[in-house]
């Protein structure tokens, strides 16, 4: 393992109104190593990466690449110097080919026309080098998430990248796809590329990293050989305290059935079919399954976002019709969607407006005007009770960390005082400290006699935060497992029951 320092950030400091995002950070990144960057949401990881990629200009300090101090003007400038970033949310051009996406703005041309043969040959040569089994002529929109990740990494390599930043690269990948990605990362290491790897998945970090740097509240806490770290040590360094019990102990669920679903079937024959289950008062019902199990489609249909061909819904023993989210909310349901950036937050609006938007019509005064005072009081209450880290309620939500964005969305739904809260991957992409806070909020919610349906692809979370787990495979319910008897093996055996 080389000790040659390719990239060094030295005494980097970056301030935003009301907060110091980076505080005198110095880290070395070495040749051919995977260097993981960990910390709670808001620890400064994203700000540091944006400084490296030319999206932010640090207020103090230097970025040194191959011994040369450089002040990147923008992302193009950073890429010209060999720094590339594959972000968590990929934004390909879906209707264009793979090779067009890779060489966008750098097309091989002949007599002023795109030379498609040369474009194909260059792409195939690149894919052969990286052992990528994708046709250069494939349309991007037809690829799986892991294939899109590989194309994005190949694009970085095509730019002669010395440093590749991977931001939560496995957040939407299945286990076999993660294995493919890790194989590509190993090939990049063999080529001498520096990989900066950002993830909240500690098992991945310990498996793939050579070194791990920890950040907390904008400050650098230290760099450690991955082989010398444990999960508990990482948590302690990240949050400044031990979290002995990540999953708080849940009170037993009640006997009363709050929600019953009978023979619920999608209009799409390839989606969920003949799903029946009961949700008890005070219960967290986990929904387990692999990619393609149709769990998200099921809960979206329950919330009135997708049509069903048949099925019955009973709430408190009364049959209800839910044809739209308006119907769902009237019947005490709330849905926190899987993709907070795509279907949750309004990035150009403030924390205040993002939170209050679900309840605008609940704040009229006698003259039919919205009561600013009452809205502000509600927002302030949830900022305090959910411990949302934001300079003010007027701060744009896009400037908050992922975990704090998620808590704003929780506040949005809690304002409606629902009886049933549906959570689709509630802790995806957020740090262990914020996860623990969300788990505590979930426990407090069901302790009030309300209930939660939770989809999670993280097996420990599914087992640790559920009273029962309902497992699905290919749109069918394959079984139920009580928390006291739940093991990863039992759940996985049900999750693959109908796979070929």
The main sheet comes to: 6 strands, mixed
Low-confidence stretches: none
How many β-strand stretches?
22
Strands side by side in the biggest sheet? 6-9-10-3-11-12
Sheet-strand content, in percent, reads: 25-35%
Q: Number of helical runs? A: 17
Oligomer: single chain
Helix content: 25-40%
Based on secondary structure, the structural category is alpha/beta
Average pLDDT reading: 86
Distance between the terminal alpha carbons, to the nearest Å? Answer: 42 Å
Shape descriptor reads globular
Tell me the Rg in angstroms: 24 Å
Features:
500 residues, 6-stranded mixed β-sheet, 22 strands
Question: Could you explain how this protein is built, in words?
Answer:
The chain has 500 residues and is of the alpha/beta class. The protein is 32% helix and 26% strand. The protein has helices at residues 45-52, 75-80, 98-102, 116-130, 145-158, 175-190, 202-208, 231-239, 295-302, 325-330, 340-343, 351-356, 372-385, 402-414, 432-447, 459-464, 488-495; strands at residues 5-16, 19-30, 34-38, 60-65, 68-70, 83-86, 109-110, 113-114, 163-167, 194-198, 211-216, 219-225, 257-266, 275-280, 284-288, 308-315, 318-320, 333-336, 420-424, 451-455, 468-473, 476-482. The strands form five sheets. Strands 6-9-10-3-11-12 form a six-stranded mixed β-sheet, sandwiched between helices. A six-stranded mixed β-sheet has the order 18-19-20-15-21-22, with helices on both faces. A four-stranded antiparallel β-sheet has the order 2-1-4-5, covered by helices on one side. 42% of the residues are buried. The model has no long low-confidence stretch (mean pLDDT 86).
């Amino acid at each position: 393992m080389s000790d040659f320092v390719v990239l060094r950030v030295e005494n980097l400091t970056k301030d935003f109104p009301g907060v110091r995002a980076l505080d005198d950070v110095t880290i070395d990144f070495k040749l051919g190593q995977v260097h993981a960057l960990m910390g709670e949401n808001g620890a400064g990881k994203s700000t540091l990466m944006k400084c490296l990629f030319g999206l932010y200009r640090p207020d103090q300090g230097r970025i040194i690449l191959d011994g040369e101090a450089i002040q990147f003007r923008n992302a193009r400038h950073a890429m010209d110097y060999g720094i590339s970033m594959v972000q968590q949310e990929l934004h390909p051009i879906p209707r264009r080919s793979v090779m067009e996406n890779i060489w966008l703005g750098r097309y091989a041309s002949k007599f002023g026309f795109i030379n498609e043969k040369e474009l194909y040959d260059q792409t195939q040569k690149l894919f052969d080098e990286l052992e990528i089994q994708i046709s250069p002529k494939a349309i991007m929109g037809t690829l799986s998430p892991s294939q899109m990740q590989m194309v994005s990494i190949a694009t970085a390599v095509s730019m002669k990248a010395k440093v590749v930043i991977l931001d939560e690269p496995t957040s939407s990948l299945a286990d076999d796809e993660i294995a493919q990605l890790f194989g590509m990362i190993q090939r990049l290491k063999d080529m001498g590329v520096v990989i900066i790897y950002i993830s909240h998945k500690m098992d991945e970090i310990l498996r793939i990293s050579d070194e791990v740097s920890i950040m907390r509240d904008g400050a650098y806490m230290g760099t450690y050989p991955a082989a010398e770290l444990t999960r508990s040590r990482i948590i302690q360094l990240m949050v400044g305290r031990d979290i002995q019990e990540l999953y708080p102990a849940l009170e037993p669920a009640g006997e009363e059935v709050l929600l019953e679903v009978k023979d619920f079937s999608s209009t799409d024959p390839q989606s969920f079919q003949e799903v029946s289950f009961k949700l008890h008062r005070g219960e967290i019902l986990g929904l387990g399954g692999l990619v393609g199990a149709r769990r998200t489609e099921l809960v979206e249909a329950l919330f009135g976002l997708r049509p069903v061909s048949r099925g019955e819904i009973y709430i408190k023993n009364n049959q209800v019709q839910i044809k739209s989210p308006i119907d769902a909310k009237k019947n005490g349901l709330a849905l926190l969607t899987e993709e907070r950036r795509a279907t949750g937050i309004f990035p150009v609006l403030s924390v205040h407006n993002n939170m209050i938007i679900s309840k605008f019509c609940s704040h009229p005064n006698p003259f039919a005007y919205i009561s600013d005072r009452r809205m502000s009081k509600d927002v302030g209450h949830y900022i305090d009770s959910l411990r949302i880290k934001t300079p003010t309620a007027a701060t744009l939500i896009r400037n908050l960390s992922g975990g704090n964005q998620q808590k704003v969305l929780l506040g949005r739904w809690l304002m409606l005082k629902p009886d049933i809260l549906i959570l689709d991957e509630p802790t995806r992409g957020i740090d262990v400290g914020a996860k623990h806070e969300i788990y505590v909020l979930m426990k407090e919610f069901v302790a009030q006699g309300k209930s939660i349906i939770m989809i999670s692809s993280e097996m420990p979370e599914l087992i640790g935060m559920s009273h029962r787990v309902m497992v699905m495979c290919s749109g069918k319910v394959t079984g139920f497992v009580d928390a006291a008897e739940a093991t990863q093996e039992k759940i996985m055996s049900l999750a693959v029951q109908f796979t070929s």
